[in-house]
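Predict structure. Chain length: 104.
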Amino acid sequence: MALAISFENLLNCVNYLLPNVSRSDLRNKLYCMQLAGWIDRELYSGKDYFFTCYDIDSLEYAYKDGVADRDNARRKLEVTTALGNLENAPRHVRKTASARRGAK
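Prediction complete.
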């Protein structure tokens, strides 16, 4: 949901949800996702920035019984906004990510 996110910030987000994922585990998973063509990366100023290659979200979401708020669009917007506030990727990286995302 981030346009582009640095490896460190991505690792922090993943570790918040899955505390046992190591740096090398995440690097391996990202490498496999890049080989599959699901994501790409841009190296800029010594930092790797990762981004998806598709505009379409391939995941389906489900909620527990009894959850009143099931508005996917609002939740996605909240996450996208939070990630945007967390990572203000350089303009060049954002432009590259947008161009590659739209090219698929």
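Summary: The chain has a mean pLDDT of 81.
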